Amino acid sequence: MGMNQTPMSERVHIGFFGKRNAGKSSVMNAVTGQDIAVVSEVKGTTTDPVYKSMELLPLGPAVMMDTPGIDDEGELGGLRVRKSWQVLNKTDAAVLVIDGTAGVSPEDERLLERIRRKKIPYLVVMNKLDLAGRETGREIREKLGLEEKEFAAVSASDGTGILELKEKIAAAARAEEPERYIVRDLVSPSDFVVLVVPIDKAAPKGRLILPQQQTIRDLLDGNVVSVVVKETELRQTLGQLGKKPALVITDSQAFGQVSRDVPEDILLTSFSILFARYKGNLESAVKGVAALDRLQDGDTILISEGCTHHRQCDDIGTVKIPGWIREYTGKELCFETCSGTEFPDELERYSLIVHCGGCMLNEREMKYRLSCAQDQNVPMTNYGILIAYVKGILRRSIEVFPEIAALLDGSGGKADV
Predict the structure, then answer these.
(1) Roughly how many angstroms between the first and final C-alpha of the chain, as a whole number?
(2) Residue 21 in contact with residue 43, Cβ under 8 Å?
(3) CATH code: domain of residue 378
């Protein structure tokens, strides 16, 4: 990610779906004005999802996602269809492309029903208007029960209707944009906040990891002063400030030391906990962490990360988190990991899921993962909540969110919730 680029997780995700040869790739290329996806007369040309980050006017920063056909066949085709469903789970606005010369198919109807069931804003696009005619478009609208704002008729080959389509996509996507903040709604302008940022070995030289960058930007947007220090400089810095900070935010891995160095009358939390709230899963993560006290020998725990990175010898997901859990529980446990876009469909064999803060995932995908766990009665927590819990400082780390802190009793965060 370039210094001035909007992170992918903060862009509106627009997915193009439909049958093979409906013209998904052609429509997406016409909307973007670029040859992003390969176009061919051969069915199944798109074998894997194609992603393109771009500025789409009049919408703004977006990720355009082309997908394999939902009617693909065979064992390999089934895997491609599964990839399309995975893309749907992160889609903020869905574009269902229908071949106007073929009309509405049962696959189209099933996909539209799935989109509606997931409550994803959508637009049905009849492609090949130049061949099918506008009357066919009216028939498709009536058959699917679509409002005017939910339908567009275009010709990707000659550009007819593409400008209107872009405007309707923007309108659908904007409906999904409630204002959310990482931290600035918790403090006031002119406050100052201390950020504790250990130098992460996994971060490229000269750069901060994404949650730290985004938190600093959010504070700047709120006219809040940020003081950034390493954990080794925190105690001295607090003594020299001359004024109590409104909040201290730390990398979760330094929670223990930072909690000792920050006086009890100063609010303390972590980047991971802030991102749990930002992605909409803080309450569930606080409730889910109590499963640690119910683990038995032989139980399996899934450690899930939203990004892929080179594993270090002291990697947090594969080394530190399992180590802290074993030390806290005293149990012989099994651990499995997944990362990036992969997230298991079948979760029932896990006794607990521990997820990263999800800075690389958009809110919709994070909530999808949480709903999968809830549907299968598997507790799910996140890195920051778990670390605070095993170190006995969970209550303190969520005091900045009184309604969430109310879920705990007075035991410092080591009681069932």
Answers:
(1) 39
(2) yes
(3) 3.40.50.11410
Let me know: does 89 contact 117? Beta carbons within 8 Å.
no
Q: What does DSSP say about strands 93-99 and 122-127: parallel, antiparallel, or unpaired?
A: parallel
309-360 residue pLDDT tens: 555 556 888 899 999 999 999 999 999 999 877 888 899 999 999 998 888 8
Give yes or no: residues 35 and 143 share one domain. Answer: yes
Asked if residue 149 is part of any domain, the answer here is yes
Q: Same domain for 149 and 199?
A: no
Give every strand in the sheet of 122-127, ordered side by side. 50-56, 60-66, 12-18, 93-99, 122-127, 151-153
How buried is 185 (Cβ within 10 angstroms: 0-12 exposed, 13-18 middle, 19+ buried)?
exposed
- The total domain count for the chain is 3
Q: Which amino acid is at 73?
A: E
pLDDT digits (tens, 9 = 90+) for 97-151: 999 999 999 999 999 999 999 899 999 999 999 999 999 999 999 999 999 999 9
CB 44 within 8 A of CB 77: yes
Task: State phi, psi for 9 to the nearest 5 degrees.
Answer: -65, -20
Shared-domain flag, residues 236 and 317: no
- Closest C-alpha among 27, 22, 105, 104 to residue 69: 22
Residue 290 DSSP symbol: G
190 CB-contact burial (10 Å; exposed 0-12 / middle 13-18 / buried 19+) = exposed
Distance of alpha carbon 143 from alpha carbon 127, whole angstroms: 16
DSSP state of 252: G
Range of the domain at 51: 8-174
Q: Are residues 67 and 163 in the same domain?
A: yes
Burial 241-270 (b: 16+ CB within 10 A, else e): eeeebbbbbbbbbbbbbbbebbeeeebbbb
Three-class SS state of 110: helix
Kindly report whether the peptide bond that precedes residue 245 is cis, defined as omega within 30 degrees of 0. no
Residue where a domain stops, chosen among 274, 297, 313: 274
- 206 and 57 both lie in a single domain: no
In the block, which residue shows the tokens 């925190």? 234
Identify whether the C-beta of residue 70 lies closer than 8 Å to the C-beta of residue 18: yes
How many Cβ atoms from other residues are within 10 Å of residue 231's Cβ? 19
Radius of gyration of the chain (CA): 24
